[in-house]
Known about the structure:
By secondary structure, this protein is α+β, with helices and mostly antiparallel strands. Helix content is about 15%, strand content about 35%.
Amino acid sequence: MNERLVYAEIESVTDEMRNDKRVLIISDNALFMVTTKTNSKWYNLYFESVPAEAIDAYEIEFKDGKVSSVWFPTS
């Protein structure tokens, strides 16, 4: 994975987030937005690096320009 993944805790999901293929929304005791470090500049949120343990646990990947997870599929 060349692109670093970052996350932010969010209160709601916007249409912009929903339509951005570089955004993964995770709902697990809280609502989180996962995206690439490069893409995060488009959102006015505080981002932190996604821990390797979370990438493994949620099977998050950035492939073919899309952030995805088998546990949190997007439509």
